[in-house]
Design goal:
Layout lengths: L2 H16 L5 E5 L2 E5 L1 H7 L9 E3 L5 H13 L11 H14 L5 H12 L6 H14 L5 H13 L1 H4 L8 H9 L1 H18 L3 E4 L7 E5 L6 E5 L6 E5 H4 L13 E2 L7 E2 L1
Helix pairs in contact: 3-4, 4-5, 4-6, 5-7, 6-7, 6-9
Protein name: BTB domain-containing protein
Pfam family, one: BTB
Organism: Elasticomyces elasticus
Length: 264
């Protein structure tokens, strides 16, 4: 980050704390935020054409509060309210789309992706999925891929009608037919691919972790190793040098958890 940019962001953060020289009011219900056009207009074209007062509708004040914090600090907190953090991040994606806030949706999806591995209850994920399909664009494939990443990695238990722990999740699938249709398609595609899985060694130096994925000529796979930190994105031809069944007398250990290379 350039020195000038650091100084500018420090200055914006200071303005956010002090509220000095605020020249724009953002209103939502009985809440009012005194903000600075230099901060919010730099992040969002939505506010550029407004007068000195802009009124928002049908948003949650906790989310708007953190959206404004992001405009000043380039980050926000998803665990500072009574809203489940996963639902909070999905709602942040929704307001980022609604108000054209630069890079905020990507940040929110990144936070959500980290929560996939945190072992939170499935009911929060069910709520997050339902909110996503009600408030965000179907064209936001990155958000949906993140949500499906959680579901598919745990589909066996989530969709088991005899598993009492995930009744909320199964009820959500009945209320959200668009999600259920895509889930069925993805599970069918995964089953087809798993019937022809191959095993590959992590390309990291001295790493003995392996992963399984489906791959064919003309396609590639990206891989991020949680053991050694290696990241790789190779086409089919290059990956063949790492196929375990083509390497003799070299033991491997599978990556813990449901972790597959991702085709692209």
């Amino acid at each position: 980050m350039q020195q000038g940019q650091v100084v500018a962001e420090m200055t914006l953060e200071g303005l956010h704390v002090s509220k000095k020289f605020s020249d724009l009011k953002v209103r939502l219900g009985d809440r009012t935020w005194d903000v600075h056009k230099v901060a919010v207009c730099m992040r969002s074209s939505f506010f550029e054409a407004t007068e000195n007062v802009v009124t928002l509708h049908e948003d949650q004040p906790e989310v708007i509060d953190q959206m404004i914090e992001y405009m000043y600090k380039n980050d926000y907190k998803d665990d500072d309210s009574d809203i489940d953090p996963r639902v909070f991040n999905v709602r942040m994606v929704a307001v980022a789309e609604k108000y054209f806030v630069d890079n905020l949706a990507q940040l929110a999806i990144g936070k959500l992706a980290e929560q996939v591995y945190e072992g939170m209850s499935s009911s929060g994920w069910a709520d997050a999925i339902e909110v996503a399909y009600a408030t965000t664009a179907d064209s936001n494939h990155e958000l949906r891929d993140t949500l499906f990443g959680f579901v598919i990695s745990r589909a066996g238990s989530l969709l088991d009608p005899d598993d009492p722990e995930h009744t909320d999740f199964r009820a959500m699938t009945e209320r959200t037919p668009r999600f259920s249709l895509v889930l069925a398609q993805r599970l069918a595609d995964l089953q087809r691919r798993q019937s022809s899985l191959s095993t590959y060694r992590c390309p990291g130096s001295d790493c003995n972790v392996a992963f399984q994925t489906w791959m064919e000529a003309g396609h590639g796979v990206s891989w991020d190793c949680r053991e050694c930190g290696e990241s790789a994105a190779h086409d089919y031809q290059i990956w063949q040098a790492y196929r375990v069944d083509l390497i003799v007398n070299e033991p491997v250990a599978f990556q813990p958890g449901n972790h597959f290379g991702l085709p692209w």
